[in-house]
Amino acid sequence: MGKPGSSCASACLFFCCLLSVLLAQRVKVLHEVTGYMGKEVVLPCNFATTTPDIKVSQVTWVKEAGGRKQNVAVYHPEHGPSYPMKGNQSRIQFRTPSLEDATLIIKPLLLMDEGTYTCEFATYPLGNEDGVTSLTILASPTNTAEAKEVKIGNTEQPVAVCTSAHGKPPARITWQSALNGNASLSQVTNADGTVTVASQYSLVPTKEADGQCITCIVQHETLTQPESIPVTLSILYPPVVSIEGYDNNWYLSRSEATLTCSARGNPAPSQFLWSTPSGPLPSSVEVQGDRLVVRNVDTSVNTTFICQATNRVGQVSAEQAVFVRDQPAKRQSGSSGALVGSIVGGILALVILGAVVVFVFYRRRPRANKGSYDPKTRVFGNGTAPPLVRDFTELDRPLRAAPGRGREEYDNYEEEDEEEEEEEREERLQPYGYPSRRLEDEEERYDQLGPMLRMGSSCHGYEYDDMESQHDGSIISKTAVYV
């Protein structure tokens, strides 16, 4: 068991700690405050009196930076407010000087104001009570980006730089680019404690990279969102030259023939020099900067023209040979176009004609139930047999009803009727000298006649089996015709 004295000491220590916590809670402050350089910052501090026996005699703000403490503001009811730090009388002041509210205002805020601030209340009979506030200063940087002019080359060089100056804490810089480049970073701490960060973007400079856009992106705690700064690269390269305007149709007495010296470069070419391999230009030629104008073509311009373009990076030349004809060249484009048009038109006409022929053919095809007829089998080509009409007797015979008769009696009646009709037919043929024969012999006789009796059988879109159409529109049975 422990000694009774040690137990009492522990209990007293715990009570003192609890009392100090309760007393410390009388001073109301913010534990952390963030201020922006050049702006105003407020450090709240209030004393909460719990009993009327506690008396406050003085309020003091103490700053601690780098292990050093210094009074920055004091308020006494009789002597009023005071600010011991030199040069801070105008930047630091109490908001409402009193023994209950010791809120401190600092403006404009400097980076040197960063540190730990303690608000102390001198009380009776409890002694000093305080609250601690940590002040952090942020400095918003100034961000810029620009291209660096470099000449075309084969080694990697910085072509752009992005700078975030006087920031706290240091800014973060990245690049957004479609080019194959590399970034390098450097930073410098300034005398006021801010930091300047610089990032260089490097690549192998080519004329294709000239005019390309890359973007510098800066991120910082003082920015609500990253800041994007576009940069257009400037790669210096000598002119790229070509001569335009020659149409291979310069002929004698032609007027206003023109050549143009087309040149691009960085910087843009500013000087153009025209010449020929033999030296000076023909007298019929007029130079207008990058243009060469021939008012009237003659044999003197039957030569090679040279254009030299110059910028501060270099000089580049281009040549154009000119051939002067006696007569204008015949243009084949019109005849060729006409020939092509004729061929295409002919093809289209054949296609249309073929479509019309196919359409007419299908429109005039016999219907499915009107195919060719085979007299021997007495069946159409589609496998159907037409009704057999032998002569006028069958056409004119009325439909005979057999009321009250059974099916068998009706069939016998039909057979008797057919025999009577056959006899009547033979009797009608006798006066004309035709021999009497059976219907089967008549059909065989008709088949031997061949196509003579089948002339015009399809004029109306159908064929007859036992009858043929005459020219006068009458119908004659094939059983009544012999040769």
UniProtKB/TrEMBL annotation:
SMART domains per UniProt: IG, IGv
Disordered: region residues: 372-452
Acidic residues bias locations: 411-425
One Pfam match: V-set
Membrane topology: Single-pass membrane protein
Keywords carried by this UniProt record: Disulfide bond, Membrane, Signal, Transmembrane, Transmembrane helix
Biased composition, class Basic and acidic residues, residue ranges: 391-410
Ig-like domain mapped to chain residues: 38-138, 141-232, 238-323
Signal peptide positions on this chain: 1-24
Transmembrane stretches, start-end: 338-362
PANTHER family: NECTIN-2
Protein's recorded name: Nectin-2 isoform X3
Organism: Pogona vitticeps (central bearded dragon)
Taxonomic classification: Eukaryota, Metazoa, Chordata, Craniata, Vertebrata
